[in-house]
Amino acid sequence: MDETRTTAVRFPPGRYGRRREGRKAQKWVLAAIGSVFVAGGLFVSLSMYNQYGGTDFSHQVVGFDTAESSVSITFEVFKPEGQAAICQIRARSADGADVGQAEAEIPAAKSEVRVEYTLETSAKPVTGEVLRCYPAR
């Protein structure tokens, strides 16, 4: 016999309790939950952008000169006029380890400032770099 019959399963009455139909979630509940997730994602995105995103502060390293226990870094800072800035500076050794870090305060006078900063190091540096510049508080 090659034919397979499908019949509905019938349970003996009163033996397994009352059968319930699956309950469907109401559409407005799903819409409300979706709206909460979208609003939460938007809030997180905007707060992260305000904290880490779009800034008017930038920098460009012009050059650096290394010595046995220091590095002199020349860099330009571009910022809004009349606002002070702080730039994080780092020196690294040949194996990539940090051998010196400092924060340089940039005066509020001009919008473009050229800075020459000498950073003392704990070992012989091979490079000097400006990590970032941000507004002074």
TrEMBL record:
Keywords: Membrane, Transmembrane, Transmembrane helix
The keyword Membrane belongs to this UniProt entry's keyword annotation: yes
Protein name, as recorded: DUF4307 domain-containing protein
Transmembrane intervals: 28-49
Record flagged with keyword Transmembrane: yes
Organism of this sequence: Stackebrandtia nassauensis (strain DSM 44728 / CIP 108903 / NRRL B-16338 / NBRC 102104 / LLR-40K-21)
